[in-house]
Specification:
The protein is α+β, with helices and mostly antiparallel strands and 676 residues long. Among the domains are: 154 residues, Butyryl-CoA Dehydrogenase, subunit A, domain 2; 152 residues, Butyryl-CoA Dehydrogenase, subunit A, domain 3. Helix content is 53%, strand content 8%. Strands 1, 2, 3, 5, 6 and 9 form a six-stranded mixed beta sheet that branches. The chain has a three-stranded antiparallel beta sheet with strand order 4-8-7, with no helix packed on it. The chain has a two-stranded antiparallel sheet with strand order 10-11. A hairpin with a 4-residue loop joins β2 and β3. α6 packs antiparallel against α8, α14 packs antiparallel against α16 and α16 runs antiparallel to α17. The N terminus is likely disordered.
């Protein structure tokens, strides 16, 4: 549980205390499971204690600062965290492998940099990209400097005119064999790099993604290590046009930037060459797999999926605790106003989001396992699982971010008017999830990429060829095998979602094939089938999440958990599967017959499981184990003193530091006296 409170009493609100006392399971068992074991949970809490305990000002007060002040504060806070992490490293693992760079971008520490970390991209993307795409010599020469924080860097890919469509990037890197250098240029305004975190005024180096040209012939997208600013003066180097892109909905202190290049020369050996290579004489050696160039983005999509499950968990924690404290609208006349969590309509706003959090956390864990396995295979020259990993990372990134964005907004609305205050901190959670819908691949484009993978998989299934494990459910439907009977048990529901997904894949494949027969080009046919492709991709992703949830709850690991905790997980699984079925009922009814009685039973089950989860809701979100500093919410603190917190923060507004504002004397009073 949180170890640091501020502003108001630590005495727990009696309604919250009652909820915790009435839970059917032990919260610490949930927390240990959620965070990967007792030792990892202990380490997390120790980290929070060391990082947060000397922070006294509530994070919501940051919103009263100017844009420039917030930028400066973010740099200061981010560097303070780095120093603390290095001190922890020196104490717990002196002389050992550095663990702090991995922790630097951890969601455990989000509360320490409330406006965002301008050096986050350096450690969550740039370092790994150099490790996986650079040679051992390049890692020694400049990769270690980046990881050791001797320089500041970012990953510069997105341009003003191009984002997810990487083949359309316009930044050029032309090889000059007479000097053994690459000449970097932004040929027009749309080629300017735009959005990289930390690029604006923090980075003095970047990993630049550009189109490689040799003798004016394109060789595809490659990565280049480029110095942007002088290490001593921080002044931009010749040919570098660099700055910040301005204020945004969130991430106020991340210093997202723009970058233009004009005849900037770098050594040939600054192109990352673990895979593709340019020899001194200009000979180009292709990568063994073109997808390897995009491997850093695959890694980031895995991370984005997990981070957005965390964002939704934060919003669910805030809204659930608030719903246990807030009392309103008697259910029966002349009775005391109940906790709003007792209203079934409020439960429907809260509990499906909690179940979705658990589903995506388990799905993201499974995705990371596939990533690690694929990475090991690549090290041994085996690239066979790359397409599957790419498709699955695209699907989960798209679904998790869109669900997190929509879900956190639903949870904000579930908090009524108080959810609109910045002191609730729900606005930043919504904004962060909204940003994730477009960075590291715009969601619709990603779903279309999944759709293309499914078209290839369906053709293979028709021809009886082997399928990847996550697409293996297509084999039966592609060979004409029917669904069978609807029983409504969990395994049956998962099979129904898979069968509906296979049906959507079939329909998209037939539409695509028909358009090709009509003479449309492959591009035209794919564009005109876009709606069906994205529908198939969405159901494919949801089928994977549902199957993963079922396997994790009912599999062998269940024997290691208490019966009480297993019942809670089973209730969450029941809610997720029934809610998902009802949400995609039209797709299911296209290929599976359900009677009116069977449809009615789903609604009955939905209401029943909401009732089962009601006594455990607060304990479940407690199990996510968020520190108060991470939530930074007057509505969602562990103690739950909502009204006292709201009032205390309101009193700290700069406009309340004097009884009469200056504007009264300079603006309002003269107007009132003007006899207008």
């Amino acid at each position: 549980m949180p170890t640091k409170k501020y502003l108001v009493s630590d005495v727990v609100n009696p309604d919250l205390a009652k909820e915790r006392h009435g839970a059917s399971f032990r919260v610490d068992e949930f927390a240990r499971w959620w965070h990967g074991g007792a030792e990892r949970l202990r380490f997390k809490r120790e980290m929070e204690h060391e990082i947060f305990d000397d922070m006294t000002e509530h994070n919501t007060l940051l919103h009263y600062k100017s844009h420039e002040e917030i930028s400066e504060i973010s740099v200061k806070q981010s560097l303070e965290v780095a120093k603390k992490l290095r001190a922890i490293q020196a104490r717990i693992n002196p002389g050992g492998t550095d663990i702090w760079p991995k922790l630097y971008g951890s969601s455990w520490l989000w509360g320490s940099t409330p406006a965002g970390n301008p050096f986050g991209v350096q450690f969550v993307m740039m370092v790994d990209a150099i490790k996986t795409q650079g040679t051992d010599e390049q890692w020694e020469r400049f990769g270690k400097r980046v990881e050791n924080f001797e320089v500041c860097g970012t990953y510069a890919q997105t341009e003003l005119g191009h984002g997810t469509f990487l083949r359309g990037l316009e930044t050029r890197a032309d090889y000059d064999r007479t000097t053994g250098e690459f000449v970097l240029n932004s040929p027009k305004l749309s080629a300017y790099k735009w959005w990289p975190g930390g690029l604006g005024h923090c980075s003095n180096y970047c990993l630049l993604v550009a189109q490689l040209y040799i003798d004016d012939e394109p060789k595809g997208v490659q990565m280049f290590f480029v110095q942007l600013r002088d290490e001593e003066s921080h002044m931009p180097l010749p040919g570098i046009d660099i700055g910040e892109i301005g204020h945004k909905m969130g991430f106020f202190g991340v210093s997202n930037g723009f970058l233009g290049l004009k005849n900037v020369r770098i050594p040939r050996t600054n192109m990352l060459m673990r895979n593709a290579k340019v020899q001194p004489d200009g000979t180009f050696v292709k990568s063994p797999s073109s997808v390897l160039t995009y491997f850093p983005m695959v890694m980031m999509r895995c991370r984005v999926a997990q981070d957005n499950a965390t964002l939704l968990a934060m919003a669910a924690t805030i809204a659930t605790r608030y719903s246990a404290v807030r009392r309103q609208s008697p259910i029966n006349p002349n009775e005391r106003e109940p906790q709003i969590i007792d209203h079934v309509t409020q439960q429907m706003k809260l509990f499906p989001e909690i179940a979705t959090v658990v589903a995506y956390q388990l799905g993201a864990n499974s995705l990371w396992t596939l990533y690690d396995e694929t990475y090991v295979n690549i090290e041994h020259g085996d690239y066979t699982r790359l397409p599957e990993l790419h498709a699955l990372s695209c699907a989960l990134k798209a679904l998790c971010t869109s669900d997190s964005n929509a879900g956190s907004e639903r949870l904000r609305l579930a908090c009524g008017g108080h959810g609109y205050l910045t002191s609730a901190n729900l606005h930043l959670i919504v904004a962060s999830a909204a940003a994730a819908c477009t960075y590291e691949g715009e969601n619709t484009v990603l779903l279309l990429q999944v759709g293309r993978f499914l078209m290839k998989s369906w053709r293979a299934a028709i021809e009886g060829k082997p399928l990847t494990p996550t697409a293996s459910y297509l084999a039966g439907p592609a060979q004409g095998k029917g669904f069978g009977n609807w029983t409504g048990d969990w395994e049956n529901i998962v099979r129904a979602l898979q069968y509906a997904s296979a049906n959507k894949v079939r329909l998209a494949f037939e539409s695509l094939s028909q358009r090709l027969k009509q003479g449309q080009t492959e591009g035209e046919a794919a564009n005109n089938t876009g709606l069906e492709l994205t529908q198939a991709a969405e159901l494919h992703g949801r089928s994977f999440i549902a199957a993963t949830f079922l396997a994790q709850v009912t599999g062998p690991a269940a024997a290691e958990r208490s019966a009480a905790f297993n019942r809670v997980l089973e209730n969450l699984l029941e809610l997720y599967l029934v809610h998902t079925t009802l949400h995609h009922l039209s797709a299911i009814l296209q290929c599976i017959s359900l009677s009116e009685t069977e449809l009615g039973a789903l609604q009955t089950r939905l209401e029943a499981v909401l009732k089962k989860l009601r006594p455990d809701a607060v304990a479940i979100v407690d199990g996510f184990d968020f520190h108060d500093r991470t939530l930074s919410s007057a509505l969602g603190s562990y103690a739950g003193n909502v009204y006292e917190s709201l009032f205390a923060l309101a009193k700290q507004s700069p406009l309340n530091q004097q009884p009469v504002p200056k504007s009264f004397h300079t603006i309002l009073k003269p107007f009132l006296k003007s006899n207008l």
